[in-house]
Amino acid sequence: MNLHLRPDALAEWTAAVFETCDVPAEQAAEAAAMLVRSELRGYRTHGMTRLASYVDRLQSNAFNPRPKMTSRSFPGGIVLDADGAMGHVAGPHAVRLGLEALETSASVLIVLQSCAHLGALGIHTLLAAEGGAFSMMGQHTPPALAMEGFSGGAIGHNPIAFGCPVPGEAPIVFDVACSVAARGHILLAARENKPIPEGWALDAEGRPTTDANRALDGFLVPMGGHKGIGIAMMVECLAGALTATAATAPTPHVKRGDAMQGAFLWLVKPDSFNGQQAFSDYMRKWTQIYLVAGGEDARLPGNRGDAMERAGRKQGIALPAPIIHELQSLGERLRIRFPD
């Protein structure tokens, strides 16, 4: 049974949890809002189920609770050193930097160094779209993808997302990992002691498996076979190679180094090209053609999340009982009473 909570109460409680980990109040509130919004929009694997693990990483200093983020800009680009910040702090900061850069430029590519897990990338590209920009974002991960028969992980499952404003409508938001299924879905299945569908994963010997626990010890299967591997390679070039620092540089914190994942965020100002009117007219036309052709069940990426968020803010946010119990236990451990 799913239980419902007021989103604002859940966000306040989550912010208080982050503050117990020495996260400054303003950053704690922003990270909490991003996490709750992820849950509201249906990103179950990247919503409240991640909170306990983020707390563990903050408390162990694998994530930096008090980052001093710095950036350097040059024509067309920004390098953001997130200083080990949580992704839900670094991501919105990168979006703000990008939108500011678009005031004087048609596009900007931001690379994020020393950044923790960004969560659902679509939440960040949504922010950019709400700011009027087209955006694309990717984050590289440790090697997790493999084809059947591989002896080990070959490349990260490297999630990628894009967002685009649609005049008069909710923004388009498309968010996928380069694997058939995100690892978070397998984590949920393992926690709920459920099997996973065929074609999602391989075990440690490179053999197909439907056992979630064996899958966690093995590898993810790329979406579309070699096509998914190719997209993962693109993300690796942008989110890995462009964020790389000298191999000889000392690692200031071993645990933090293991937890950091480079990322890129590309923003484009639509009206810099053929003007806002032409862009708006074209977006209206092609989206209508798509929706009419698809019939009554057709929808654009992001429409479902928008509807879920609107409903959740009115009716309350629905959380499964196991997640509620986990959060209640976390609250008891931190001496922060979970909201009714």
UniProtKB/TrEMBL annotation:
Belongs to the LDH2/MDH2 oxidoreductase family. GO terms for molecular function: oxidoreductase activity. InterPro entries: Mal/L-sulf/L-lact_DH-like_ah, Mal/L-sulf/L-lact_DH-like_NADP, Mal/L-sulfo/L-lacto_DH-like_sf, Malate/L-lactate_DH-like. Its EC number is 1.5.1.49. Keywords: Oxidoreductase. Pfam families: Ldh_2. The keyword Flavoprotein does not apply. It comes from Paraburkholderia caffeinitolerans. The lineage of its organism: Bacteria, Pseudomonadati, Pseudomonadota, Betaproteobacteria, Burkholderiales. This is Delta(1)-pyrroline-2-carboxylate reductase.
